[in-house]
Each structure stands twice: as structure tokens, then as C-alpha cells.
Amino acid sequence: MEEFLSWLAVERGRSINTLAAYRRDLAAYAEFLTGRKVALGAVTEPVVEDYLAFLRAAGRAPSSNARALVAVRSLHRFLADEGLALVDPTGDIGGPRVPAGLPKALSEEEVGSLLDAVVGSDPVARRDRAILEVLYGTGLRISELVGLSLGDVALDDGVLRAFGKGAKERMVPVGRMARQALADWLARSGRGALVPDRWARRGDAEAVFLNTRGGRLSRQGAWGIVRGYGDKVGLGDRLTPHVLRHSCATHMLDHGADIRAVQELLGHASISTTQVYTRVSTERLRVVYESAHPRARVP
Q1: Which among 90, 91, 105, 250 counts the fewest CB atoms within 10 Å?
Q2: E strand or H helix at 180
């Protein structure tokens, strides 16, 4: 399994978060096999089907079971390709049906209330305002946001460079409000006020977003900042960093953006991933229909 994870990292360029998810799923699979005294190389199709039944009986979400099967299937395919196993026992196993979920986008008014919740001009307020404005204004993933380095941001050109899944690089435009928030944060009285006398870790000096101790802001730290302001305006569990990404895409499509442009902005490898946003706004569909169909227009 460790050899497989190393292959994922080196040959396939999988991110740290993806590798961590694979490791958790494969550790649970290894525990299951150990409990049934089945060696990895001796796994058969019925054993894998028993494992999926075991996951379903544990009450896990279908999406979690589907992700676990991807990890298990990838492992066995790797073993077969490398000659470490005679066959791939997962070849004929179908994946669990996962109900199609819709992104839980905020309304534009809710986003406005969230952004207005950051008050003050102290360094922490400047940082938090920039985080919220950039997440909503660019649709970045939270890992892409905290991974930004100073060299990735070109405010004069209104763009930043993001590294998405699989270390894929893309250029992302930064709108007026997000650009202003970033400029305020990157000023000497913003980010400069949190710069420590001595950097604790290599790479922290280049980080765009810093924590109050002067280190690179972590994914968990940024997540907590977003949720904190969500609680402040009454959004509670509805708000996560990914909801701001959903909201960015949904609102752009609401205002007539081309779906291919939104795909490029979000860094989706497949247009089918982006198309889920086209089903979000039934209100948009109703308005367009009533304005365009001759038998639907109000006199």
C-alpha cells in the first residue's frame, strides 16, 4: 500500500489532501482484510463485495463508500499492473449509486452580509477580508488559497496563479473588490505587521496569508476563519469555504457567464463537473423562460 501511495504522489502528482484521503480509506480496508485473515494478494471479488456491504452496514454516506471503492480499485489495479497480483478482483464491481447533490450556494445578499461582517483595518481584519473576497471573487479551493505565494499574485495585471488538483497550474482573474482587499492586506500595515523577526519554516516568508504567529496560514486555520464569520451573520453550518466556491460559480452563471469560462476559472478537468451549477438556479430558468417564450410573457 505504501508503494502504491508513493506511486500516486510521484507518478500521478496527487495532492497531499488526496493522498491523505487514500491513506485513510486503505487503512480501513487493510483492517477489514486483517480481521478476515485475507492477504492482499489473495483478495477475490466476493471479498471486495463483502467490504462494500460492510461499509453500507456501518451507515456511511454513499459518496464516502464510492470514494472508498475508488481507493480499493486503484490499489488492486496497481498491484495487477506491477505484477504483484495475478488479477484485479475489482474489475467487474460496479460503484455505489451516489445521489446527485446540488451545490448549496448562498444568495448574493447573504454573501454581501458575510463580506460586510469584517470590520476594522487592523492586520487580522485586512487578512480575513482578503480571504473572503478572494474565495468568493475567484472560486479558489481553500487549499489553493493557503498555497498562494507572493510570486503568484500580480495585482497590477489583476491575476493570480493557482495550483489545483494534480499540481495543475492556471491563471485566475481577480476582480476589483478582491484586488483591493488583497492590496490592503499585502501593505506594510497589513501582512507586514504579522511578519515575525525570524521565519520558523522555510517557505513561510513567501506565503500570501499568514497566521497571527507569522507562519503560513493552514487549511484548517482558513476554514475556521470562514466559519467564524459565517456564525457571526447567522449562516452557521451552511457556510464552508467550498460553499463560497459554489456561490462564485452559481452567481456568474446567473449573470450570463459562459459555462466554459466558469470551467476554466474553477479548474475543472471536465465540463460535466461544472454543469452541475446550471441546475442550481431554477429561478434563473424561470425568469429567462418568462421573458423569452411568447406564450409565457406577461402583457
Answers
A1: 91
A2: helix 176-186
Task: Look up residue 261 and give its three cell numbers.
Answer: 469560462
Q: Alpha carbon of 255 to those of 53, 171, 244, 247, 264: distances in Å?
A: 45, 22, 16, 12, 17
Q: Could you confirm whether 104 is annotated as catalytic? A: no
**Cβ atoms of residues 268 and 103 within 8 Å:** no
State yes or no: is 229 an active-site residue: no
108-286: CATH homologous superfamily?
Answer: Intergrase catalytic core (1.10.443.10)
Catalytic residue among 60, 73, 161, 165: 165
Instruction: Evaluate if pTM is beyond 0.90.
Output: no
Catalytic, 277? Answer: yes
Query: What single DSSP character describes residue 120?
Result: -
pLDDT tens column, 63-79: 888 889 999 999 999 99
Quick one: average pLDDT of 248-274? 85
Give the tens place of pLDDT for each residue, 153-211: 999 999 999 988 767 889 999 999 999 999 999 999 999 999 998 998 888 999 999 99
Q: Give one word for 114, left, alpha or beta, with left for phi > 0 and alpha for psi -120 to 50.
A: alpha
Is 246 one of the annotated active-site residues of the chain?
Answer: no
Indicate if the pLDDT at residue 30 is higher than 90: yes
**Among 58, 65, 294, residue whose Cα is nearest residue 73:** 65
**Residue ranges of the domains in the chain?**
2-81, 108-286
CA–CA dist 257, 249 (Å, integer):
9
H-helix or E-strand spanning residue 50:
helix 45-57
Residue that is written with C-alpha cell 480499485 in the block? 73
Active site residue 76: no
Whether the predicted pLDDT of 99 surpasses 60: no
Which cell numbers hold the place of 21? Answer: 484521503
Active site residue 242: yes
Task: Please report which helix (H) or strand (E) contains residue 172, including its range.
Answer: strand 169-173
Q: Which fold has domain 2-81?
A: DNA polymerase; domain 1 (1.10.150)
Sequence-ordered list of residues with C-beta below 8 angstroms from that of 31, at least 6 positions apart, any chain: none
